[in-house]
Amino acid sequence: MRKLFIFSMLLTAATMMAQTARNFTLNLTDDGKAQMVCFLPEKCSGKAIVGVPGGGYSMLSNTHEGTLAAEWMNQRGIAYFVVNYRLPAGDRTKPMGDVMKGIRIVRDSALVWNINPNDVGIMGFSAGGHLASVISTHAPFDARPNFSILFYPVISMDERVSHKWSCLNFLGKDGQQNPELVRDFSTMNAVRSHLTPPALIVSANDDRLVPFVTNGLEYYKAMRNAGNDCSMLVYPTGDHGFGFGTWFPYHDQLLTEIGSWLDAHKAPKQDAIRVACIGNSITDGYGIDMRTAYGYPAVLQKKLGNDYWVKNFGVSSRTMLNKGDFPYMNEMAWRDALAFKPDVVIIKLGTNDSKPENWQYGAEFRQDLEQMITTLRPDLAQPVKKAKKSKKSQAVAEAKPRILLCTPIPAFKPTWNINDSVIVNEIIPIQQEVAKKYGLQVVDLHTLYANDGNKMVDDGIHPDGKGAERLATIIAEALAK
What we know:
The protein is an alpha/beta fold.
């Protein structure tokens, strides 16, 4: 019996070890002060997670908040990478740069490591949870994760309601005296609708080191208020720093729940047709609760199916006019839309431009619209420059997405000074002329939505849930042409 037991133990151990096909370490800096420990599974599901240990930005707790998770990850077919980042000592660019480089390496190596570059998440613990939330809210599109798992995260950089030493070590003493920096890197203030990736927040109710109510809960509230996908697991006990440690009373339950959350978040197909929805609050989904799930781009995704990847780049109040009160092309969403490298672009701007305070610059609407179009499609720019181009500019020049130019829907009420007469008599004619000049498809939403005034929220400007369904139907039909 004893021999059978020993054989069983050895067999189990061998099976666990077999889940990891390769384990190696990469230097992230020339001096080796930042490294990434890589655990590649035998059979990769395509999903990858970059781990960010905690330690108050003064040390790295990279076992139970790092490598200890590797076995579980690899058993699930998840490629796992632990970034041993440089400590900031007041220079936040060091840890931020190390983690962003790690994510970029994972995506750049996706083909070799059997990873879907659109399914790369981040998992941070405590101060590492803060760093993970910083990368989720501040990083450029190519280094921003597709999802986040934040264990008992430091979120606020206000030492009065957070972990004092994490705040001081990340921002430095001078940074702590700068209210703008404290606000910006208190990451609940940096959450953006549609742009900040889905998040799972894990904590214990009795955490005495990083107050949950002023940190993790604040991030959840910001995500929920932005309409973003966010979940929260708060266990009765466990205090702070349990990570993947088996001593955590709810360890098995935690792994089951994280696994279920990951399973529920499916990545888009790597060869999916990318559709970028550019626009103002109507695209954003203003007035629709959980607009990331029920706004028109989300409904459009459901209508088009898995062969498409629809992303919402709408931002409320934005104008096409670069001299408007809130120009769209100044936004992170615009930069993200370009970095998304879409195959199809749906442009729906112009409503806010009709306000008198914006339309005083109406003479520039045409040139600003053409600037957007030729930035998306450099091949349409005139005159075509024949100067030698870098590889990067050549890649941009080769992008030729199909562009659908949407007219604004009717303004059923003159709320916020939005003027339907300006839309009909001035903005739409310019859009039609520009579309003809560049050979673009026009989706005449103003006409097609004219009989849907009953599908609006009270302001008469924004479609409600039924209106979002109607918009998605119109645009899906236009895409099919």
